[in-house]
C-alpha cells in the first residue's frame, strides 16, 4: 500500500528545542539542537515508515482564525525565543533544498494543513497516511487508514497510534477527541472547556453518549451536580469545540507527484545534513539507504 507521510514540523521542532541540550549541537557558535532533532526524527520516520510521499507542514506566523474566534487563544504562551525562531527558518530552508514540499498558509496552523491533506487523500483508497507529530490533538484525525507516528517525551522515541491506541490512551474513539477537548479544555492553548469536568468524567460521558451535542441534549438524566456544571459551561464547551476542531478545508494546492520521496531527494538530504555539519546523521542515512536497497531486492522475490 502506498504511504504518504505528513510532517508536523513545528511540533517536532518545539519538542527537539526543549529536549536536546543546546551546547551539544552548535553550528558557527549558534545552537541547532532543534534542527538536529527534526532531522533525526525525519530519518527515523523514513526508516520505519518507508514513505512513498513526504510533505512538511509549518505554522504560519501571525494570528490564526482561532485567535479571531477567541482573543485569549494561546494567550498564556510565552513569546517564541529567537533561537527557536531562527532554527525553524533554517529547517524550512533545508527541507526546501531537499525538494520536500513545504506547506504553510497564513491564518492556519500546521494541524489544519495536515487535516486538509488527509481529508483530500481519503478519496484515494490505496493511500495510507501517517502523521509525524508530538501533538496528541491530531488524534482526532486517526482512522483505519490515517495513523500518527507520535513522539514520546523527547525526540528519540515514537509510537504508531491508530484507533486502538487512542482508545487505550484516552478511553474514547478518535472521532470523539474534539468533544473530549471541548469538555476538558486545553491549558496550553488557553481555552476553557467546562469548569469542573476533568479527563475521567469526560471519558465516562463519551462512553455513554456519542458526543457533546448528545450530552447537552440529555442533561436531565445526569447527576444534578454534573448537570449544573454542563449547563453553566454550555457556551464555553461550544467555543472550545470550535477551537479544538482541526480545519479540513484550508485552500491549499498540492501536487502529490511533487512529494514523491525518490533517490534524488535522498541524495539532497545527505548533502543538506553534510552542510548542517551533522556527521552522525549522515552516517545513519548511509546505513539506512544500504539496508533499504537490500530490503527492496528481497521484496522482488515476494
In short:
With 302 residues, the protein is of the alpha/beta class.
CATH architecture tag of the largest domain: 3-Layer(aba) Sandwich
The SSE string, one letter per element, is: EHEEHEHHEHEEEHHHHHHHH
Number of strands: 8
CATH topology of the largest domain: Rossmann fold
Counted up, domains total 2
Detail the poorly predicted runs: 296-302
CATH class of the largest domain: Alpha Beta
Helix content: 40-55%
Overall structural class, as computed from helix and strand content, comes to alpha/beta
Q: In whole angstroms, how far apart are the ends?
A: 14 Å
Strand content: 5-15%
Number of H/I helices = 13
Chain oligomer state: single chain
- What does the main sheet amount to? 6 strands, mixed
From the structure above, extract its key features.
globular, 6-stranded mixed β-sheet, alpha/beta, disordered C terminus, Rossmann fold
Describe the secondary-structure layout.
Blueprint: E1 2-8, H1 9-19, E2 26-27, E3 30-31, H2 33-49, E4 53-57, H3 65-69, H4 82-98, E5 102-103, H5 110-121, E6 127-133, E7 146-151, E8 158-161, H6 163-170, H7 177-184, H8 199-208, H9 212-217, H10 224-232, H11 234-244, H12 263-275, H13 279-299
Helix pairs in contact: 1-2, 2-4, 2-13, 4-12, 7-8, 7-11, 10-11, 12-13
Amino acid at each position: 500500500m502506498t504511504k504518504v507521510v505528513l510532517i508536523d514540523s513545528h511540533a517536532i521542532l518545539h519538542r527537539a528545542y526543549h529536549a536536546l541540550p543546546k551546547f551539544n549541537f552548535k553550528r558557527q557558535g549558534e545552537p541547532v539542537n532543534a534542527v538536529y532533532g527534526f532531522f533525526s526524527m525525519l530519518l527515523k520516520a523514513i526508516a520505519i515508515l518507508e514513505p512513498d510521499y513526504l510533505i512538511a507542514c509549518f505554522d504560519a506566523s501571525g494570528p490564526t482564525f482561532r485567535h479571531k474566534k477567541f482573543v485569549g487563544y494561546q494567550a498564556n504562551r510565552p513569546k517564541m525565543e529567537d533561537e527557536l525562531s531562527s532554527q525553524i527558518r533554517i529547517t524550512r530552508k533545508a527541507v526546501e533544498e531537499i525538494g520536500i514540499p513545504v506547506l504553510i498558509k497564513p491564518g492556519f496552523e500546521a494541524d489544519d494543513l495536515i487535516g486538509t491533506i488527509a481529508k483530500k487523500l481519503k478519496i484515494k483508497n490505496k493511500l495510507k497516511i501517517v502523521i509525524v507529530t508530538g501533538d496528541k490533538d491530531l488524534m482526532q484525525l486517526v482512522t483505519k487508514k490515517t495513523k500518527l507516528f507520535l513522539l514520546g517525551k523527547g525526540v528519540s522515541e515514537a509510537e504508531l497510534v491508530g484507533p486502538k491506541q487512542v482508545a487505550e490512551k484516552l478511553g474514547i474513539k478518535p472521532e470523539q477527541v474534539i468533544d473530549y477537548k471541548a469538555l476538558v479544555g486545553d491549558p496550553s492553548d488557553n481555552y476553557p472547556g467546562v469548569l469542573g469536568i476533568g479527563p475521567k468524567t469526560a471519558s465516562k460521558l463519551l462512553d455513554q453518549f456519542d458526543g457533546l451535542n448528545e450530552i447537552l441534549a440529555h442533561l436531565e438524566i445526569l447527576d444534578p451536580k454534573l448537570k449544573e456544571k454542563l449547563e453553566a459551561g454550555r457556551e464555553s464547551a461550544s467555543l472550545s469545540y470550535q477551537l479544538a476542531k482541526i480545519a479540513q478545508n484550508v485552500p491549499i494546492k498540492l501536487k502529490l507527484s511533487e512529494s514523491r520521496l525518490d533517490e534524488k531527494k535522498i541524495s539532497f538530504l545527505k548533502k543538506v545534513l553534510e552542510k548542517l555539519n551533522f556527521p552522525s546523521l549522515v552516517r545513519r542515512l548511509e546505513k539506512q539507504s544500504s539496508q533499504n536497497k537490500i530490503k527492496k531486492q528481497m521484496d522482488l522475490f515476494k
